[in-house]
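Cytochrome P450: structure tokens wanted.
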Amino acid sequence: MTTTPAPPLLDSTGTGLHAQVAALRNTSATKVTLPDGVTAWAITDGLIAKKLLIDKRITRNPTHWTRGRPTPEPGWLMPWTSPSMFNAHGGDHSRLRRILSKTFTKRRIESLRPAIEAIVHTRLDALAAATAAAGKFVDLRSVFSYPIPITVICDLLGVPADQRPTMAHVMEAAVNTSLPPDQAAANSHTMAQAMAALAVFKRAYPGDDLTSDLIAIHDTDDDRLSEEELLATLLLLVGAGSETTVSLINHAAVNVMTNPAVRQAVATDPEAWGDVIEETLRLNGPVMFLPLRYTTDDISFPGGITIPAGEALLIAFAAHGRDPLIHREPDAFHLDRDDKNHLAFGHGIHHCLGAPLARLEAHIALTGLLNRFPDIALAVESGQLQPLPSFISTDYTNIPVTTGQGTA
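Answer:
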């Protein structure tokens, strides 16, 4: 009697994620095991991944997940299968995307610049105060980079002050793929409650904010935006508007602090920050695997592999930037790299609407940080930085730094 070996366990701790992805790249598609025994096909070849993102035989709609879908679904899956624009397909996706697209026009995003600058200034003051109080190193992530995107998106959504700590906590937990099943389920429940509480508050106290706008659309025309879609869209906005931008700011800051030539380049030419951000998005894409996509038809891959219709897929977005068949010296940071092509914000119809906002926040945060603290440095070797326990986010758990004297 022979038995089929279980699919390899995907690294949920983040510690060996890039190494595992590089190993998986040896095959065009590999079935892997996720938390709670969920299985999916990992796609880590950069060229194949990019093609699949525009393949009409691939959908984000979980109703097509007919092979291996667990019943009931484990709690950690809830944010990734809820009915938002994130998971919609076809006409539903177009309908939901149109609702949000007016918020993320180039003009409206640029209008947020003064507010973002004020938020960054406040966090720079907090970083200076934390340094003075600690007398040695401080955590750049918790004091500076993490509060900026969550504050920006909470301001945009009109989240009241007393609800913001819960928002921040559940979003961090949502990308933690090493939580025990009961904690993951509890976090998903808290997440749903938080979105419902925000909707209740904004119905009672509407304002000039995106949540109030979405509620008005729903209350006027339920066919255009259902209550379930409203809450899922709020969840999407908070999650997509915070975690990925935090990771971008952190990785870019580390890249500058560990590359003297790059630090000199941005000090000499502020325009170089654009290249820093794009090269960081290539080398350190904020998202590795983003659950989930599904096959609507059988799909054949090189090497004689066929994925049947109804299976779940995990596409490795960050792997594209480190694929040696796409980029020279893919694991090195090159500011002058000609081709900084990446999938950090997706590709095709699901390309992130908030990408320009993420870039703007990162640019303002990073220029402010290095202008205020030109001598900022890591307090540990870069290899000692600990990753978040996640196969979703590539961020760090903390970033100990010394800030130097700083400027006024």
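Residues 17-402 form a domain with the Cytochrome p450 fold (CATH 1.10.630.10). The longest helix spans residues 181-204.

Cheers.
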